[in-house]
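Appendix B.2, paired examples.
Example (i):
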Amino acid sequence: MTLTSTQCALNAYSGNKSMKVLLDTNIVLDKLAAREPFKDDVNRIFTLIGRNELTGYVTATGITDVYYILRKKLTDNDCRKALRHLFEALCVLAVTRYDCEAAFDSPLEDFEDALILACAEKANVDFIITRDEIFLKATKAISPSDFLIMWEELKL
């Protein structure tokens, strides 16, 4: 079942107390392209999302980036299928003018990272999971492996 925007909103604002994570584009690509050596950690994160232990988010602009990159290796139909499957697991955050303006005002130099951070703050996510070395220096950003280590410590 695909998560509707209403279901995503209810998860964000209801009694659903699962931790919220926004997945950066590189993480989504690791999943969909089964990229080594990253796929194992990413698959574990998606398993947690599938079990509703985490609520997963991606930005709408991240979806367009993923499509563009995957399209270089896959057919249009295969890209669309992969993204539709992704929609079954993740909530897609809209990107608005206000998010763009917040990104312009961000101390982060990389506009894309600043935009993801603005969307993460809007959705009150707990962490942004990324492998982007520069973005990892931002607040809320964590690598997949560090996130999983932290997750295991929280679950003890």
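Example (ii):
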Amino acid sequence: MKVLIVDNDSVAMKALETAFAIRGFIVLTAHTGIDALNKLIDPTRPKKPVLIIVDPVDAGMSGVELIRRIRAINSLASTPVIVVSANDDMIDICIMAGATAGLSKPIAVEVITKLSKRLLSEYDAARKDGSPIGYMTGPMTI
């Protein structure tokens, strides 16, 4: 399974990259929204990520715009997208733009990996029975 991590903070990205690689994921990384979008639409990468993690702070393309573009790609329209940000208002805006869930920075690796596991489990169950994939808002228990 592939995960795409989009973050302009190299230290935070490396921590997430390591955490997901240890858990068996193939990890793609991007420092900008533009780089992330290019990786997502690259025809030489036919296997798309099953999970996308986005820090919405980016000079090239806002996280909100990236999420809107992800949702416009048919093959990624229901892929879980987790937003991680120190700005709770930005998390809310990203969820309104189509993110599946949001976590406030700093985040514990255990929290994001548990949330990821839960979202992927729900995504797989919904795909199998044809249910619509919903988005999470408000407080959540992990």
